[in-house]
Every structure is written in structure tokens, then in C-alpha cells.
Amino acid sequence: MNRGIIIRDAHYPGRAAIDAYGNGGFRFADMSHRGSILCLPSGIHGWEPADPGRLSADDFQLVLDEAASIDILLVGTGLDLKPLPAAVKARLREAGIAAEPMSTGSAVRTYNVLLAEDRQVAAALLSVD
């Protein structure tokens, strides 16, 4: 029986502050992850939007699945602030989530503050180099 390497979706099962970002990834909970991440009540997940330059509602399905536990979603859009498409904001609003786009650095800092205040916050963070 050939078992080979099993590749699983990246997932840290808990809420954790983001310790560092840059070089294409993030550090949290004494670990590092290369690529973008979703910080949700269920944990920190690897996130691969189909087109990071043009986010769609489908890219936020995991967020929508946990909408009952999220009041605000911080969206780190890279080095610069980029507005979310109206359809994405509308879909998140329908689920009861206020979405706030900002640069990834600003989103990381704001996420850490709101997490420390035990707020119902989530973050969708695009990696930066």
C-alpha cells in the first residue's frame, strides 16, 4: 500500500495574535505560514483566493460559514488599501458582517488589538513580500 505524503489544508485550531508578517507569509503561535491566511473563530486557515487582485464572494466562503461568530472582518489587501467589490461587501453585510478593507499591515495591527479585547473579529490577510 503506497501512502505517500498527505497534504492537508493549513489550519491552526485556535485564535492567535499575528506576531509578524512579510516575506510572503505570517508568524503566529510560534509557527509560520507562507501565503495568505484567514483568521477565524475556528482557527487560522491557509487562504488562496482565486485572484488576489479581484476578490470575490466565493473567496470568503469560510468566513460566511462562521458568520454567526463574526461581527467585523478586517481585509488586508496587500501593501496598499484596495476597496472590496460591492458584491463582496453586500454578501458579507447580508450575513451580518461589517467588512473593513485596509493594508495588510494595518489589518494585522487592528486584528491584534480587537482580538486582545475579545471582540468577535476575523481577518482575511493577503500576504506581502
TrEMBL record:
Short name of any one Pfam family annotated for the protein: DUF498
InterPro entries: MTH938-like_sf, NDUFAF3/AAMDC
Highest rank taxon of the organism: Bacteria
Name assigned to this protein: Mth938-like domain-containing protein
UniProt source species: Neoaquamicrobium microcysteis
